[in-house]
Each structure stands twice: as structure tokens, then as C-alpha cells.
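Colleagues,

Please find the record for the two-part complex below.
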Amino acid sequence: MRNPTSPNQTPSQHNSTIAISPFVGNRTRSRLPTHRIHPATNAQRENPLSNQLNQSWNRTVSGQSPYRSLANSPLVQKTNPSIITASLTTPHQKNTGTIPTNLNANPNSSLLASLSKGNVFGSTISSSLRKVSIQPNSNIPETNTKDENMSNEINKATTTTLTTNTTIVSPEIDLSELTSIERLRLWRHDALMQHMYRTAEYIGNKIYTITEDPNDAFWLAQVYYNNNEFIRAIDLLTKDNLESLNIICRYLMGLCLFKLQRYDDALDVVDELNPFSDSKQDSDPTIAPDGGIKVESSLCYLRGLIFAAQNNLKKAKTAFKEAVLVDVKNYEAFESLISKNLISPEEEWDLLLSLDFSTLGDNEEMIRYLYTLNVSKYIHQDVSKTAKQSLSDEYGLSNNIDILRYQIETLYSQCKFSECLEACEKALDGDEYNPTILPTYISCLYEQNGKNKLFLLSHNLAEKFPKSAITWFSVATYYMAIEDVPKARKYFSKASILDPSFSAAWLGFAHTYGLEGEHDQALSAYATAARFFPGIHVPNLFLGMEYMATNTLSLAEEYFTLAYDTCRYDPLLLNEMGVMYFKKNELEKSKRYLKKALEAVRNSSGTSTIVISIQMNLAHTYRKLGEYERAIKCFKLVLEEAGKDAEVYCALGFLYLKTKRLGKAIDYLHESLALKPSNTSAQELLLHALELNASIVLDENHPLVMNAELYSNNEDKLIQKKRGNISSTEAASMSKKMKMNGDMRRLSPDEDGDEEMDIE
Amino acid sequence: MDEESQLKLIQDIRRNLRRASQDLSKWKLYKSAKWAAEALCGMGPPSTATLEPVDESPLRNRASKGKNMEEERKKKSLSEDEHDLYLLASSLFDCKEFDRCTYFLKDVTNPCLMFLKLYSQFLSWDKKTQESLESVLTTGKLSKNSSNNNGMSVTGIGEDTMSERRREKQSHGVVTMEDGHQSSIAIILMELNSYLDDVLGTNEKKEESQDRLGLGLLYYLKGILLQNDNNKSQAMGAFLKSLSYYSFNWSCWVELLDCVTRADESMLLLTHINDKFTLISDHKEDYDYDTQNIVQYNVMTKFFKLAISQDLNGNIDELMEIIEALLVIFPNFAYIKAQNALVNYHYMDYVNSENLFEQVVKMDPYRLDDLDTYSNILYVMQKHSKLAYLAQFVAQIDKFRSETCCIMANYYSARQEHEKSIMYFRRALTLNKKCTSAWTLMGHEFVELKNSHAAIECYRRAVDINVRDFKAWYGLGQAYEVLDMHLYSLYYFQKACTLKPLDRRMWQALGTCYTKIGNKTEAIKCFERAIQLSGNADQDTTLMYNLAKLYDQLNDAANCKQYMIRCVNMEAQMDGQQTDETIKARLWLARWESKNGNYEIAYNYAASITNGTAAEVEEARFIAKNCQKLM
């Protein structure tokens, strides 16, 4: 921690970025229960919150605040906005005085030292501090910051600016002591924050011309970057060789080149290997424990992005991993690893365990839990469940989008589509076009055959985000749902061109070929997908399925094993493996895999199709193994869950035939044929069963005879009674009856004799 | 049972029926409510006898009634919110806006409201699938009608309806609402099961079933859903459970009856009800014990026994006993009379049955239930004018009842207007797709029109709905016999025979089938059994001759001769009238005797042949001449 009272030490950049960013308020609001609050802070906090607002204000302004040192520490900043605001004014005052002197004193000496990130940001402090310092005056931040919790960067920026505009606090105190250059810098920064890039450029340019300070050059480059003028930014940065001097400049340079898609140049700038990998500790002492994301990490991330863009996925993966290992705060790197499917589920968990969350201080636990929710849903479900539980219980995040997303993805991976749909709709209620939820939602709608909703959603998306891959994925899915395969393929390919790392679109594209039975194209599409997304097993799985469809079982087995190596918990995969071994006639193996598959979906919902097909396959396996009773049981379960199916009835008929229960066999075969009259195997089986039925000897054990015996217990009584009745009725009716019976001979199906009367 | 307890019993029945009618109509089980109310009013006037206990009983009754009301209010335990919700849901239900009703009830916890929600969900699903069935019926009608005009494309129709049927069956699975929400029986059932598990789990702790009615209703629904899935045994369990919670739900008994497919099952079920079935009562209410909560006295079990024995040919003595016993309590209840008529109908006592039906119509002229059976009787008895009157009469009451349509169809059939008849049957089925007799009778009509494939299709539908319909099985057997597919027809006759093992025709048909297949020994067994069951000489000659011929083919001359002689002897019972079979038998005997040298006997046989075909008479003359020569 720095000593803010020392005039020579400029506050590090981290301090300032925190001050700039509205996160300050947010972090305070996160209400960590484990928060250790300094007693002094406590007291201090109460002060401004209670009636003594002015008092504290005055006191801090005077620069005599005993809490100053405390207040400047990042911890306190995080705990209480009012303190920051109150106390930060002091360093501000000091800084405004010190920075220029500092810079002016040795503008050329120790350029590297002064050009640390801290200095680069140095000039911004004034303006940013002012923004924050305003907060206690109005009570807005108390509530505002809370609401801001979930808002994105842009929103945050605007809220800050809003507060700036609404309440302007005695700026003359500050401004009066500023040098003219400082004022210009303030101006430039305000303009930048408010996205008025022309203004920022205009002023920044003037500042740079006046001072020729590399700091100002960097800031100008920053302005150019924000204005999408990448080439100008590069020119500026290269002119003074800034990029070779300072790591953050290099980062910016690399970013610009990346945006220009000059990947090789960008790679040159950021280096192919992490230069800091071995000398982490002395890389930059000012990258303090309090702070933002380490630039090295960002550099690594950029490197990863470049590699990914160059389709060098292995290197990209290492780079991303490095990035997140260097600084756990680099969520983007972490997310890229997972969402681009670069690593397998197990690797994900290993990575998670190797991450060092300790730099996060009080947030350690929460962030760890949050990251836990991101990794694969196939394994360690209990861990992620507890993570989710404590996140929603202790941190009040139960309605946060990431928790919801976790729930949704869990439900989806368990094939509970209807619940998943509901959860998606709930999540999208708050954030209609959330890109992390939409793909799952779209897939869910497809699973549930929600064509109508897909249609509306696709139209909405196409109107609002015509350049997003998700939009075209949605459109393609709609066409899949209405079974217009060529169109679906067109849009899937569009989606995958827009975002090559969008695995769902790639797979959809491959599926369209599979659906049309174009095996070769499907195979190549799946193979490409398998190359692009080494972290998911699905492409390999489908490759295996394609090979199985062409009866190339050995190749299928190979691919299945590949898929199995990446993810051994997917019931679909296990099921396919079971089927494959069934086809290879390795029944015991098949049984084992199918049982595994059943276990994997055990807590999945009953109606999901996957359970049914697993059950069915298992039943067939049992049938082949000769375990007829078990097979029958399985088939019955299938019937209960899936409803009527001709094949199942046929199989049941066969099994009953095998187990010598002829009546049932015939019944089931009938049922089968009723559903599907063209089923030749059922026809043959039925004929066979009927022949058997005809050849059964009518002795005491024949069910018919037994049944008749059962009745004939009452027989005598009955007949007597009947005859008695008849005799009691008139002779006329008797004769009629006789006549009727006469008719019976011909066709009569029943006693009514109905129509037969008319034949006469 | 002494008089006092008898009175008490009647009081209890009265009170229970009253409450059932209210409860059930509140929760939209209109049919059961109607039945309960009918029964209540059929009980005759409350006894005014001024016995000591009677004086007391109304008081007691009133007191318990007050308590009852209070308890009921407690039990229903609809909070104010829930009650308001109920009002909304109830009116939506009445307006048949089932999806809306489900939507508004989506978060309820009260068992009764839960029932209403799931019930409306089920009905909505049912409505949607019913619509698809209707389309089948209408399109089927078009194709069939057109083909009736040109009898050529017979097979085409069979396939046509087959595919339609398949389509319909497939659609039975899942109804997708186009917005991703699916509803199917399985989904409703899953929700119901999890809810029941929850409720029972918590209830056991409380050791009190707080809501007998609600649970009863929920189990009833579960049974219906399971039955729709063709899961009869589980459905039966659910119905029994429902009845043990709430026995006065008549529809539930009826559904339970529908689960029974064979006579032996019915016996098992009855013994189960007698021995193991218990009615769960409110333990907390210690007010004078309700006789209706004890199985022996429960009047509903009696009604069920009546219904099940009527439907599955139980012992007629027992049946009559039950009917008489029930008539004592419910002297004016049309249902019992109708059941009585049906019993007689099933024992082919058409005259009695007709009389009884007439009484029913007099007693309750606008009651349409079971009148389609009445029309069947009139049709069989060829009372066409009466049938016409009945058709006119019911058409005035309500044209849009399946019973009405069946009666009209019978009427048109009697007038030989088979197309019209088929149309009316189809209409009946649109109104009530579970009307098996309509399917069967429609099958008969198609047989009339010589359209076997369509007939088969109809019969199949009938047995799909009601496996116990032996007429449909028999019809199937005959239709396949016409198509020369004897293996199939044998199986269907076997089915019919299982249902009616004491019917001669079944065994005879079986025997014929076995003969055609070539399995002579079994054929002989069947014919012998048929002879045992037969009471009609006219038919017996055929049987005997068939038997004799079979023995002849098996070269069992002794038995053959014996049956030939028996066949000829049957003439005596028919006032000496000769039938085709007796003539053939005589001829055979004549041939046999002449071969064995008994010329005198042979001559007698041959000479006695007076009727018959020209060839037969010719041969008889030839034998007679020969014998005369050799004598």
C-alpha cells in the first residue's frame, strides 16, 4: 500500500482506475458477510450517512483527516463510498500539485519508471476523483450503486457522468489549483468517458503537442482506439517507440493490430511466448494487490485471441490458460476457454482448482463460486450445487444472470427441456437478448418444438442484431424446426462465419448434411467441428454416429472412444456406444455402456426421449442376451414412458412368443400392426404365433377350456334359470327366438341378430 | 339388520348422496353428481314412521349435519384467495376455456384446486386429440361413402382407414402448443404423482388425511390418465385408492369397471373389494359412526357389484338378489330398473327386457341412457313401428346424444338404409368416441354392404375401446372367415369364446375354424362342447353332422356312425322336419349300411329321403333300388 501522504509518490494507476470505475460503489454494495471493517471505518461511515455530512466534508477537505491514510487504502475504498468520496478529495488536491511537478521535474529521466502504468493514468485522477467525490452530496449513490450491480460498462459510465452533471461540487477549489495542462487533461478525460471522441482527440492532440509527454501520447492513442481509428493509434504508438517501452502501450498496440486483423504483426508485438512467464514477481511492483487486471494477463489473453483467430487452437488454449493463471480476474480469458470449448470438462475442473483466487481478498470465495458455475455441468455436480447454494444464500445473487444461466445449463444438460424453457424465459425476462442464454433457449425451443416462439424470436433478433451469430443460429434453428433443411444449412453457415467459435452453429451445419443423408459432407463438417472445438465431445460423437450409420463400426468405435476420452458422462454418447457394441455383437459391453448411460440420466426427467431410447436399447440387448424377462420389463417401461410404438409392441410380441405366452404375444403383435400395418416382421411373427395357436391342443390346460370350466361352475344353475325364464314367457316369443337363431347360422355376430333379419 | 339400523343406514345413504352431489358438482364431475342426485331422489320419500329412534335421528342428523358443514368448511380449507381463484377457475371451466383455467391455477397447493387444474389440463389435451379424431371420422366418411357407391376399391378403404387410425394413434402422444409448451398424459401424470407424493408425505406426519375429497379426486384423475395410457392394473389401483378416500364418486366405479377385461378378473376384483377394501373415514369425527364407511354396508359397492356382474355375465341369482335389495332402498331409481333390463338382455330374455325398458321410459321419459340397448332389442324383435316411435321420440329430446344417434341408426338399418345408418353411427361416435356398441354395429352395417375391410376396421376400433365386447371379436372372426384368413379368425373367435364360454355359437365357430385349418381333433372337441351347451335342436343337426363328418375323415367309423344316427334322431325333436344335414346324414347312413350288407336298414334310410337336392334324391333312389335288389 502506498502512502498517500508522501507527495512524491503518485497514486498508482489501480487506485485511480478503481476510482474512475463505478465499481467502487458496487463493491461496497456487495455486502460481504465476512467483511472485516476497520473500526475507524465504521465510525467514519456512520458520519456522512448521518447528519454530519457537511462536517466530514469540511474535515476531509481541510486535508487534516486522521482517516486519510485509511481512506486511501483500497480496502476502505471498497467498503465505503462515502469515505472514498470524502477522503479522496485530499489526495486529489495533493496530486494535482504533485503530478505535474513530478513530470516536469524529470520528463526525460527514468522514462521507463515514470511510464509505469501508474503514471500513464496519472493525469486522469483529477477528473475521475471529482466524479466520485460528488457522490455523498446527493443520496443517489446509496441506491444507485445497488441498482448498478448488474448494469454493463456503458451504463456505468453514463451513470457516473450523470452524477457529474447533476451535482457539481465546488470544483473551483480543485480547478483553481490545477495547471492549465492539468485542466486540459481533465477535459480530455471527461470527453473520453463521455464518448465524445472528437473532443477528446482535439484536446488530447493539443496536450500532446504541448507536453510531448508519452503519457499524453498514450492517452491520445487510447482515444483513437476508442474511436476505431486503429491505424492512427498504431502510428502514434510506433512513432515514439512507445510500444517497446511500456507494456500497456504494447498491449494497446497489439489490440489495435488485432482489430485490424493483422494477426502476424500483432503477434510480433505481443510476442509469441509470454516474456513474463519466468519473472512474474519483478514484472511490475506497482501492479498492486488491490488492483485491476494485470496487464500481463491481458497480454496473454490477447495472444490467445490472436492464436484463436489464426486457428492455432492449441496455442490459444495455452495462452488463455496462462492469462487466467497470471491473474484470476481475467474473466474473459476464463470464459473464452470454456465458451470456445477449448478444454474438456475435466481440464476445466483442473484449471479451476489450479486458479489462485487469493488475490481477490474478501471476494475470493464468491468469485471462486462464480467461476465454479461456469465449468462443465457433467461432473462434480455436487460442488457446483453447493457453490450455487452459497452464492444465492450468502451473497444474495440468487437472481443474478449467471446463477440463472447455471441453472439453465444444468437443466439443459439433464435434458429437462420444459423446465429449462421456463427458466430461460424467466432469465430472459430481465435481459431479453442476453447472448449467454439465448443459444440454450433456442436449442430448448427446438427440442420442445416451439416453432411459433422461434419464429418470433428470430424475427426480433434479425431486426435488432443482424450481425450477431446468435441471430442467424436462431433463424437456422427455426428452419430446422419446420424441416426446411437447405435453408437451415444456409443460415447455420452464416452464423458460423460470423462467429467461428460458435460450436452450436457448426454442429447444426453438420447436422443438416446428416439429416439429408449426405454422409461424406456430414463427416467432413463434423471433422472440422471436432478440430475447432477440441473441448467438446459432440463432434466426435456425431462422427461416430455417421460412421455407424454407414456401418463402419471400427471407425465409429474409434471416434466414440475419442469422444469418451473428452467426456465420459454424456448419456447420449454412452447410449451410442452401447448401440455400437450391440451392432458389433459384443452384448456384454453394450449392456455395460447402456447401464452407465441410464445411470447418467437417472435423475433426468421421465419423458425425455433419451431415457426412452436408452431403455429401448437396453431392452434389445437383454433380448439378444436371452434375458427375456428383463427385456420385457424394459420394454414395458418404455411403453409407459413413451406411449405407443409399433417396434416396441413387435419386440414385446416376439419376447412373449419366446417365453411361450401366446395370447399376450398375439395381442402385442396385433397392437404393433395396428400402429404400423406394413411391418413385415410383425406380420410374420403374428402368422407364426397364430399357427402355433391353432396347433395347441384343446385339453384341460388350454386357457379357453379352463375359462369355460370356471364358468360352468354356475353352468347348471344358469341354464336352468335361463330355461325357466324362457318357459315362463309366452310361446310366441319362443318361436321368434327360434327363428332368430335360425338366422344366426348365416352371419350373425350377436344375439341381436341385427341386420341378419333383413337378409331373409 | 334390525329396523333401527336399517333406518340409520338409509339416513346415512341419504346424507352421503346429498353431500356427494354437492361436492362433485362443485368440482366439475357432473356425471357423478347427476348420478348421486338421481339416486337421492330415487330413494322415495323419507320415512315418516314415528318410531322412537326415528324421532331422534333427524335431530341427530341435524346436529351432525351442522357439525358436518363446519367440518366441511374446515376441510375444504379454501382460504379466501383460494376461494376467489376457485370462482375464476370454475367459471372458466364452465366456459370450456381449459387452457386458461390451467394457467390461472398454476401455483395452487390445495388438493381440490390441484385436481381442477390437472383435470382441465387433461380435458384440454383431450379436446385437442379429439379434434384430430373428428377429422379422421369426417375424412373417413367421405372416402367410405364414395367407395360404397363403387364397391370396387374395397381394399383401398381398409388401408385408408388404417393409415388414418395410425395417424390418430400417433397424435395421442404429445400435443405441442407451438410455443414450446407440451402437454401429454405423461407430463400431467408426472406432475400429479409428484404432488401426491408431496401431499402424502406431509399428511402422514399429520396423521390425518385432511382432505378426503381432494385426494379421492386426484387419485381418480390419476386412474383416468393411467387408463388412457392403457395401464389397466395401475389404473385399477388408483381407482380403488380414490374410492377408499371417497366412495360416492360413481364415475370412478364405472371407470374401475372399464379396467376389468375378463370375467375371472371381475371375480378377483369383487373378492378384493369384499375382503381387503377399506374406506378411509375421518377419524377425528366421532359423531355417530357412518355406516357408509363400512364396506359391507356401503351402498356404492352394491351398485358396483350389480354393474360388474351385469356387464360380465355374473351369476343371475346373485344379480337378482342385489337388484331386489337395492330396489328396497331406491324404489324410484331408474338406473336400477335399466340395469335389470340389461341383465335380461344379456341373458337373451328380450321380452322381459323390453318390458322393463318400457317401465323405465315411463318412469323417467327423458332419460336417454341405455335406450340404445332398448332399440337393439326392438330391432331384434322386429318391432319396427315401436322402433320408429322411439327414434322420433328421442330425436325430439336431444339430437346430439350418442344414444339418440344409435337409435336412429338402428331405425335406418331396420329400413335397410345402411348408408344412412352408418352415417348416424358415425355421428354417434363423434359425440362419444367411447361408444363401443356404435363401432360394432357400424361393423355389422359394413358387413351388410359386403365391405369386409371397413367392417374389420370398425370391429377393431370397438375392441380397442372395450376389450370385453365379444360381439366385436366375433364379428372380426367372421369377417376374416369371409376373407379366408382362418388363422386370424380362429384367434378372434377364441377371444370371443373367452368372453362367452357358455355360448354355443362361439364353440361352433371355433370348431368350423379348426376344421378349415385342418386341425380335426380340436374341431371335434369344440363341436362336442357346442353340443353340450346347445339347447336348440335346429342347430344341433348341423353340429352333429359336422362332428360325424370329422370322425369320418379321421376314419373313426364308429363315432361317425353314432353321430350320424344322433343327427337323424334329432328330427324327432323337430316334428319330423328334415333339414339339409339330416338328409345328408341319412344318405351317409344308407351308403354305410349298404356297404356293410345291412340292406334293409340302408333301404329304410334311403327311402326316407324325400327332400334335398336333385343329386341327393337321385343317389338315395339309386341306393334304395340297389338294396331292394339285394335284400
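The mean pLDDT of chain A is 68.

Comments are welcome before we finalize the supplementary table.
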